[in-house]
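[Meeting: bench + compute handoff]

Bench side (C.D.) handed over the final construct sequence. Compute side (W.E.) agreed to return the predicted structure before the next meeting so the bench team could plan truncations. Sequence as handed over:
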Amino acid sequence: MVQVIVRDNNVDQALRALKKKMQREGLFREMKVRRHYEKPSVKKAREKSEAVRRYRKLERKRKER
């Protein structure tokens, strides 16, 4: 559960902090994925493509060094 403290009635600052925390937790991504039912085969393919993307990104970073 994400919680944010509102200080000095500054709601804008609290909303920014909440959005940042939700982004770090991955809630926006999870909400997008769970918006519609995803067949197990489609889910498996998506997760595999995400893993490949992460691996390629990691390899690019290693080559830069």
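W.E. noted at the follow-up: Residues 1-34 form one domain. C.D. will use this when planning the next construct.
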